[in-house]
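User: Need the bound-state model for glutamine:
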Amino acid sequence: MQQITILQALSQARGDIGDTDARLLLQTVLNVNHAHLIAHSDQELVPAEAQYLHQLIARRAQGEPVAYLMGKREFYGLSFKVTPAVLIPRPETELLVDLALERMPLDHSSKILDLGTGSGAIAISIANHRPLANITAVDASADAVAVAKINARQLNVNNIRIIEGDWFGGLAGKRFDLIVSNPPYIAGSDPHLAQGDLRFEPQTALTTGGDSLDCIRCIIASAAAHLVAGGTLLLEHGYDQAEACRQLLDKAGFCEVFSRPDLAGIMRASGGVWEFPRETARI
Ligand code: GLN
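Assistant: Bound-state model below.
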């Protein structure tokens, strides 16, 4: 294979996969940052690097998500390892971390539960900003648990326990100050599951295969038994599920039920506070 420079590699790849992806994949191959590519644009790729780049470009052109090809994704200012065993953390999910941190005083050792943690992005971000908190993160997938544990270790987060389990299955009798979850919320019939990045992501992290509210309903129904009085439940949901979610929270007896938009203005998260079983006023 003929030797090519960084500049030549970028201009060749750009045509197949666009500027940004070309740059990110070349950074991955050379294990360097963007500044290095600019400062050393005449550096030649050794044949093994050129071959690796060629493979990654071909895989990207077939639709594989950049995050899986790079093996990492930024979330809440931290770099998380991602593999096809976990959902790729989305920028809109940072809202859930904001909402959780707003409710957790820095000087308080709150008990937090993250259901369906995947890469651990939400739980580890919270743990990182609240060193006194005690975080439990659960996922039904052993492979996801393994990735989340690697992330906790690599990011030096120690106030977290990551366990394999089915929602509240392994948590009988345990209560938390705050429960947070980004559960699967796409209907099994949604054509988006067969498009774009979603095709390559773990389907069990996106959908139950049935109704889009299956998991949200299940979590809301069991959350009260795992919250302390005054504890909060926070859920991410689909763009059109805020009202349904608030109704479910309200029916289950949650107070101060609310929804909040993400940065794109889409109602993306809802939650409520578990006080005590409400007296139903009968007139
Ligand atoms: N927000 C993701 C998407 O629509 C879905 C994540 C989820 O199901 N929890 O791509």
